[in-house]
Specification:
The protein is an alpha+beta fold. The chain folds into three domains: 63 residues, Winged helix-like DNA-binding domain superfamily/Winged helix DNA-binding domain (Arc Repressor Mutant, subunit A, Orthogonal Bundle), CATH 1.10.10.10; 85 residues, no CATH class; 88 residues, no CATH class. The chain contains eleven helices and twelve strands. The radius of gyration is 22 Å and the shape is elongated.
Length: 257
């Protein structure tokens, strides 16, 4: 691409390459521009409203319909770091498993990345071990691509880190809502692949509580808290080795069980 290409032609080329999040260095390498031309191209994209700075030196492509991009928080979230996918509370809401709308977009990634605030929207990045980076698929949201956890992985991730999914009660409700259509074999497979006995015991106990007993889940050797973010006080389920530390009245009031 020649150095004097118009901003619209640059934007179209970036769209073809699906390079939605870029730096001047990316632009120079992918569009065969020299450094000075890349910075000029970025400046012209911004001036024409075709791109916006999200972080210092990092830009997101807005294209010819900027409001469509700016209003699509899942699209923005899943392109600010690679590899990454939308999960936890955000994915539960995307799949219609919770009616609560999280104010923060939660993203799973193997990278360490600080939270980003862009146009009033907070993006929170949760660092995973590489073995846990699976179970997501490409979704088209408003004609824009985003990587989002599938239903089973959204639940497994949320049980792994309930604090990023509205808490254990919220995750329990989402699991119950998902059960009529959920592939339980896939859910168990995902839980086993996470290599976390605490997560597996938590999932097994919840499934038993909902009348969907499963086999194949590893069980924690020592008692673990059903809600890892509350004191581990309460009765212990003898099979799953789970300390039931969610007050019965709160559990019942939530409609879980």
């Amino acid at each position: 691409m020649v150095n004097n290409a118009s901003p619209i032609s640059v934007a179209r080329r970036l769209r073809e390459l699906e390079l939605f999040y870029f730096s001047p260095a990316n632009l120079a390498a992918l569009l065969s521009l020299d450094k000075a031309a890349a910075y000029r191209a970025v400046a012209r994209l911004r001036a024409e409203g075709l791109a916006a700075e999200v972080e210092k030196g990092k830009y997101i492509l807005l294209g010819l319909e900027p409001e469509r991009v700016l209003s699509n928080s899942l699209f923005v979230a899943s392109h600010l770091v690679t590899p990454a996918y939308v999960s936890y509370w955000s994915a539960l809401h995307f799949h219609g498993l919770t009616s609560q709308v999280p104010r923060t977009v939660f993203v799973a990634t193997t990278k360490k990345k600080r939270p980003v605030t862009f146009r009033g929207q907070m993006f929170r990045y949760v660092t995973l071990r590489p073995r846990k980076l699976f179970g997501y698929r490409r979704q088209t949201i408003g004609d824009l691509p985003a990587l989002v956890a599938d239903e089973a992985k959204a639940i497994v991730d949320s049980l792994d880190q309930p604090r990023y999914a509205g808490g254990l009660i919220e995750v329990g409700q989402a699991l119950r809502n998902a059960l009529p259509a959920l592939d339980l074999d896939l859910l168990v497979d995902y839980a086993v692949r996470m290599e976390d006995r605490s997560l597996a015991s938590r999932l097994g106990y919840l499934l038993d509580s909902f009348g969907h007993s499963v086999a194949g889940l590893p069980i924690s050797q020592n008692p673990i808290a059903l809600d890892p973010h509350r004191p581990a006080k309460g009765e212990i389920d003898p099979h799953w080795r789970v300390t039931i530390n969610v007050p019965i009245d709160e559990w019942a009031a939530s409609g879980v069980g």
